[in-house]
Structures are given as structure tokens and as C-alpha cells.
Amino acid sequence: MDFTLPDGAEAVRRGVAAVCARYDMDYWQRCEAGKRWPEEVWADLAKGGWLGLAVPEEYGGGGQGLLELAVATETLAASGAAGGSAFTYVLTPGFGALTVARHGSAAQRAALLPGMADGEVETCFALTEPDAGSNSLAISTFARRDGGEFVINGQKVWITGVQRAAWMLLVARTVPAAEARPRTHGLTVFLVNVPDAVARGHLTYRPIPKMGANTTPSNMVFLDDLRVPERDVLGEVDQGAAVLWDILNPERILLGASALGGAEVALRVAVSYAKEREVFGRPIGANQAIAFPLARVKAQIELARLMLYKAAWLFDQGLPCATEANIAKLAASQAAWEAADHAFQTHGGMAFSLEYPVARLLADARIGKVAPVTEELLLNYLATQVLGLPRGF
């Protein structure tokens, strides 16, 4: 058993870290406060070839896998971006490039992957709906076949990055949920040309005011008689569950990596303050009430990282990874929350000052406990699918 990262993953860590070193914590604070995409970081990552890691070499990418994407995401987040800004890696390298490389037709790969590799083509992912929530199989957005096209109507919520996306990976029902046997049958994943759909008035969106992660807006999305040619189906009609699992498991892993990097930032900020801040004649870090919780966070981070890398490695080997992905996401999100909460407590009243990054880190860490799936549903999966306990619904 070898716990050494492959040379390629180590090279990714060094390369992404070198880009991120040009941008300090104040940069990320300004991006969040100004609700602006980190354009400069995106451009530098693209220039260095760090966005196309999962794109096959024949399309201009690095020919690497989810493990390298997870390392890149963690490194970006740990540099100061933290959880919210690390959507930089989730939206296009994760949702777009990784999925199209695995499930796209030859024509889709040739048309989209080169642009994803160099950062010119960005994507978003649309699954969640107001009435379905985390019950993905109960979505009601429906795609009706009309000759060589599908006509799609429905509504999505919490769709991040629509404003910048050239293409949306849209999940719709092609068989109503009530008629689907098994329940996973009748899902189809579509590639939607966002600018064209918006220009024609068939796709509209409304940003959702939110707490944290404001470098990338999240939206309500409305689909009205949206026409998508059959050539833009990703995978097979009615068999989109196979594509969906290859989106959801990497999503859990990459957002786990984002949370892990956020935990590293929060711990670093807390330790630095605990060394410098003196009360009663000594640094507050000399007090066990401060030191021990931070030491425990360090242990949580290292344990979560082991499972995260294992889950990504399994995915890259084509092996089942759902259990590991769920555990990794759960452990990383809990580490991020504990790190941010203790960083807040370490700073005391100064944590409320926006001159410090602690409030941003706390908001980012809270995201991981509910998105893209709540901790309760992760635990329910482990209880029913792994432990074999009775289902409650």
C-alpha cells in the first residue's frame, strides 16, 4: 500500500500553488465583497494549463483524472480562496470537462473539450428543483420528443454560474417519475447552449441573494419550450442516471476538496492569531482551551484527506466510489466547519470585523453542511446502503 501521491498530482499541487501565491487573502476578500468572479486567477490557471487537467491530451488537456482535479481544488481553496471561490474548479473542469470526456460523443468531445481545456468554454450544471430538493429522481422538468428535437419545460433552483456558462448540463425527465421502472429510468442529460437559449427567450434566470460564496452567483432557472437537438443529448436518452452518478460522485469529492482547503485556511488563520494575540501576559495559543480544539481540527483534516484521495483514486480506476465519496464529503465538511468555528472563537469579538477573513470562512464552511447534499442525507445513505438499516421512507 502506497500513500504517496503520483508525480502528476504533486506537479499539479506545485503548479496551482505557484499561481495562487500571486493572490493574497485580501484579493479573495475583495472578490467576495465585490461579488466578482476571480478573473485574474481564472486567466492565470488557464494560461498555465491547470484548468484542462481532466481533458484528454488529444483535445489539448493534461490527460489526468479526478485525483488531480481534487488536489487542484484543495490547493486553490487552501491558498485563501476557501470553499466558495473554489467553485472555479467545480463548474467547468469538474461538471463539464470530466463528464464530457467520459460520456460525450466524438462530436461533442471535439467541439467542447479544447475550449474547456484553455478556459474559453465554461459550463454549469442544472439538477436541483424547488419541489424535488435532494430527491433527484423526483424532478419534474420534462423533455418531450418532437422529431429530432426535445422540447423542455421546467424550473431549476440553486444553479451556480449560469451567467458565465456557454453550456449547461441539464437533467430532465424523459419518462415521468411516476411511470419510471426502475426509478432511475427515464432521466436524460442534455447539453444546452446557454447564450442561444437566453437570446431566444427559452431560458431565463434570476440570481438568488445569498450568504457567502458570492464570487459565483446562484440562480433560479426557468425553461420555457426550450428546444434541444437530439445530437446534444449527453449519453443515451432515458439512461442519464449513468451520466448523473458520474457527475454527483465527483461533485461530492471536489466540494469535499474545496471544504478541506477551506479548513486549512481557517486553521492557518486561527493558529497565526493564537500565536500573536497576547492576553494576561502570554499568547492565547498557550491556553489549552485554544490549543486543543485547533489540534483536533488538524487531526480531522488529515483523516478527511485520506478518504478524499481514496475516493478520487477509486473513481479514476473505474471502481465503485459512492460510499467513499459520501464519507469524504461528510468528513471534509465537518472539518471545515470545526476549523472555521474555532477560528471564529479564537478571534473572539474581532471575528465580527470584516477586516479579518473569519466571517467569510465561516459562511463558506457552512455551505458544505447542506450543499450539494445535506449531512443528514449522507448519513442516511451510509445507514441504509452501507449498514443495511431499514429505510425510513
Automatic annotation (TrEMBL):
InterPro entries in alphabetical order: Acyl-CoA_Oxase/DH_mid-dom (IPR006091), Acyl-CoA_Oxase/DH_mid-dom_sf (IPR046373), AcylCo_DH-like_C (IPR036250), AcylCo_DH/oxidase_C (IPR009075), AcylCoA_DH/ox_N (IPR013786), AcylCoA_DH/ox_N_sf (IPR037069), AcylCoA_DH/oxidase_NM_dom_sf (IPR009100)
Ranges for domain Acyl-CoA dehydrogenase/oxidase N-terminal: 9-120
Domain spans labelled Acyl-CoA oxidase/dehydrogenase middle: 124-225
Keyword Flavoprotein part of the UniProt annotation: yes
Keywords: FAD, Flavoprotein, Oxidoreductase
Tree of life domain: Bacteria
Cofactor(s) required for function per UniProt: FAD
Segments forming domain Acyl-CoA dehydrogenase/oxidase C-terminal: 239-386
GO MF, one example: flavin adenine dinucleotide binding
EC number(s) stated in the UniProt entry for this protein: 1.3.8.7
Keyword Signal: no
Family (UniProt): Belongs to the acyl-CoA dehydrogenase family.
Protein name: Acyl-CoA dehydrogenase
